[in-house]
Amino acid sequence: MSFGVVQSAITAIKNNKGLLSQRDKLKNTLSSVNNKKVEFKKTKASPQVLREIRERLRQEQQDRKRKIITIFSVIMSVVLSLFFYFF
């Protein structure tokens, strides 16, 4: 084992120890100090609002599918054209 490998292992161990101390600092940032549960306001939504949300989500999913299909078809056409050009 050369010295460079040993030195890089020592450096990695030191860096990992440094990350552990940061992890302890960030451990309770999303929860309260007393470990109380976070309560949210519960509001009633009308059927109209729920329909609007449902339609908006459907539209977003359709848009996302269109984008994925478009990107996939463009990439496949480029790959196929390169394949036929070179072979």
Give a written overview of the molecule.
With 87 residues, this protein is an all-alpha fold. The protein has one domain. The chain has helices at residues 3-26, 47-86. The longest helix is centred in the last third of the chain and has 40 residues, at 47-86. It starts with a helix and ends with a helix.
Which helices and strands, and how do they pair?
Elements: H1 3-26, H2 47-86
Keywords: Coiled coil, Membrane, Transmembrane, Transmembrane helix
Coiled coil: 16-43
Transmembrane segments: 68-86
Assign an overall shape.
flat
Largest sheet: none
- N-C termini distance: 46 Å
Rg over alpha carbons: 27 Å
Features:
87 residues; mainly alpha; 0% strand; transmembrane helix; coiled coil
Quick take:
Residues 16-43 form a coiled coil. The chain has 87 residues and is mostly helical. The protein has helices at residues 3-26, 47-86.
